[in-house]
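chain below, 275 aa
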Amino acid sequence: MAYDSESSSSTVRLNIGGRKFCTTLDTLTQREPDSMLAAMFSGRHTICQESEKGHIFVDRDGKHFHHILNWLRDGVIPPLKDSEYAQLLREAEYYQLLGLVDGIKSALSKRKEDEELGTELTRIDIIKCIQSERVRFRGINLSGLDLSKLDLSFVDFSYACLKTVFFSRANLQCAKFRDVDAEASIFHNATLRECEFTGANLRGAVLAGANLQSANLQDACLIGCSFCGADLRSAHLQTADLTNANLEGANLEGANLKHLEGAKLDGANLLGAIR
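prediction:
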């Protein structure tokens, strides 16, 4: 079935991962005309409907889809916990809702600016520190800082509070994160080769596209983490909790994966992995 793009008020019934939603064609196509949703309902594509009640099924988690619809209707960013923002950001990126992606990042950035007043160090302090030969931030509260694009290789963050820290595109090769609390932190496209994450709390963290070759993630809490497209070759993940973690498209060649209950592995490379 192809939707008529001229009938903007047409009712559209959606089934997002088992959750049912009802909206209009106008809502799905107007605010973000270059999004995947707009393309789906542009009239250029044939869309298959379920036999009962004509719902269109999309194989994604529907937990935050009502926020996506509200954004498309009103352009409002919802007030959420940082871990929920990380989940919503993942869905916004999937649906290619660039305005929502920017809005979430702006909301997180503002929150980080507010929280930074309560942290022990600032980004400028970190930059000054990493110019020395050996750097340790053991047990320090760095929550909410933007440490993206910095060279933090070999830095010791063990036991630190790193909640919602932005490490996107940072070089963290051989850094130590033993027993850190890094819930909902962003490691998007970061270099994390041979990093030590033993016992770390990374619940809800985004590590999509990160290089985690030979990283040690034993006993780590990785519940709900996104490893989409990450390089986890020869990584140590035994006894790590990967419940609801997303490993779609990740390279897990030679990794130790003894406990993978509930993890999503669509398109992952498991050649030589220990399971």
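The chain has a mean pLDDT of 86. Helices lie at 25-29, 36-40, 65-74, 82-94, 98-116, 123-129.
thats it, cya
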